[in-house]
Amino acid sequence: MTVKVVSFVAKSGSGKTTLLGKVIVHLEERGYRVGVVKHDAHRVDIDHPGKDSYRLTAAGADTMLITSSEKLAVVKKPAASPPIEELLSTYFTDVDIVLTEGFKKSYMPKIELHRKERRDTLLCRGEEHDLTLVAVVSDERLELDLPMLNLNDAEEVAGFIEARFLK
Question: What is the pTM of this model?
Answer without folding.
Answer: 0.88
